[in-house]
Amino acid sequence: MSMAAAQSLSAGGPSAGADTDSPVMLSARGLRKEFGGFVAVNNVDLDVRHAQVHAMIGPNGAGKTTVFNLLTKFLQPTSGSIRLLDHDITRTDPAKVARMGLVRSFQISAVFPHLSVLDNVRVALQRPNGLATQCWLPMRSLNRLNERAMQLLESVGLQDKRNEPAADLSYGRKRVLEIATTLALEPKVLLLDEPMAGMGHEDVHVVAEIIREVASQRAVLMVEHNLKVVADLCHQVTVLQRGEILTSGDYRTVSQDERVRVAYMGTEDD
Predict the structure, then answer these.
(1) Could you give the domains of the chain?
(2) Which of 1, 8, 118, 122 allows an S-S link to 162, with CB 3.0 to 4.6 Å?
(3) Per-residue pLDDT at 126
C-alpha cells in the first residue's frame, strides 16, 4: 500500500462523533452467501443509520460487492436476514426493494450517453411521478418534470451542462450525473459502489461533498478504496476480509486495529 494510504489509516474524521441514536434504516444479521462449496460472505452483521455515511472497506476479493448484491436482492442470501425501514426484505424481489426506497449505483457509470444531461434526469423521474408506464402520452407531458430535474442538477452542480449530451461529460461528471438520477428515485437508503473509482483529485473532492450533502437527509452505504475519502467522510466503517467482518466502528477505532493495518499493508515478512 502507498504511503498516502498508510497515512490515511492514521487520520481521524467525522466518525469520531457518530450518533448511535440515529435510527437504523438498513440492517443485516448473520448474512451468508455460498456459491457451491465456496463461502463468499459469512456471518455479516450491519447497521446503516439515517443521516450517516457508512463505508465498507477491505482488500480486493473481501466480499464487499457481494454484500451489496445481497442487500439490494440481486442475490438471495443462503442464510441470515435483511431489514429495510424495519421491514423484513430477505426474500423480497429487487424491484420492490427499490420502490421501498433502497437505491444503488454501480461501479460502471450507468447513464444514457446520447440523451442530454437534463433528459437523463427526466427519465429517472418518470417512475416516482407515475409516468414510467404511460408511453402513449405526448413528449410535452414530461415538461412538468423539468423543475424537479433542474433542482436535482443544481444540487450536484450540473445545471450549466443540462443541454449537453451525457457522452460529452468527463468521467467524473458522469458519476455525478448518476448520483442525480439515483436521487430522482427519492431513496431513503442510498448504496454507492466505488463512487470515486477512476476519478481525478478535483472530481473526488466534488463527489465527496455531494455525498456529504446527500447523507444529511438519508442513509448512505458506500464501498470505497480511497481511505482518505473514508477518513474525511464516513461516520462508521465496516472492514471485510475473506467475506467476514474483521472489525467495525468509527474510523479512528478501525484505523488503530492492528488487524486492519496488516490486511491493508501486510507485514514485514510479506
Answers:
(1) 1-101+191-270 (3.40.50.300), 106-186 (no CATH)
(2) 118
(3) 83
